[in-house]
Design a protein that fits this description.
By secondary structure, the protein is of the alpha/beta class. Helix content is 37%, strand content 12%. A four-stranded parallel beta sheet has the order 2-1-3-4. Helix 2 crosses helix 6.
Length: 170
């Protein structure tokens, strides 16, 4: 959580909301390591934030660029689940239990102009999520989630870029 809050922009244009923090530290966007993999790599690619040609302190440069663009990534559950716990009824129950506190945080503290759902694990609770009053629009991929927490379906990156190209609500 400390890594995440360090790179929170003052004004959040787009809140990227996943289900759980990644298992592997190197997949977590805000990790202090040197390379980006998994969810972090796919998101940076979709947002066209390159890690190539950055200074020796590339991680900070990438985080700063992500922050300047008004993006913020957070998860409903900020702790990773066990390797086998990501998709079942137990995971959906844990996510459901956290929805109200997350909605309150989004409305009162984060105040984004839009929220993009980026995790297939949010699928079982999508209707509950959409029913929450977040104070901003929720951006979907033709009525579905953008899935960046696993194998990214073909064209998901392009569709996310297209969805983010439109203006966010003021």
């Amino acid at each position: 959580m400390e890594w995440t809050t360090r790179y929170r922009p003052v004004h959040i244009n787009t809140l990227l909301l996943g289900a759980f923090s990644p298992q592997e530290e190197r997949d977590f966007l805000y990790a202090p390591g040197g390379e980006f993999h998994g969810e972090a790599s796919r998101l940076l690619d979709a947002l066209e934030i390159s890690t190539a040609g950055k200074a020796a302190d590339a991680v900070h440069a990438v985080h700063a660029e992500f922050q300047r663009a008004g993006f913020f990534l957070t998860h409903v559950l900020e702790c990773p689940l066990g390797k086998d716990a990501g998709q079942g009824a137990e995971a959906a129950a844990l996510l459901t239990k956290r929805l109200e506190p997350v909605a309150t945080r989004i409305r009162r503290s984060l105040k984004p102009k839009r929220v993009v759902l980026i995790s297939r694990a949010l699928g079982p609770i999508l209707e509950k999520l959409l029913a929450l009053e977040l104070g901003c629009p929720v951006v979907l991929d033709n009525g579905k989630l953008f899935e960046f927490d696993g194998e990214v379906p073909e064209n998901t990156v392009a569709r996310l870029r297209e969805a983010l190209a439109g203006p966010a609500r003021d």
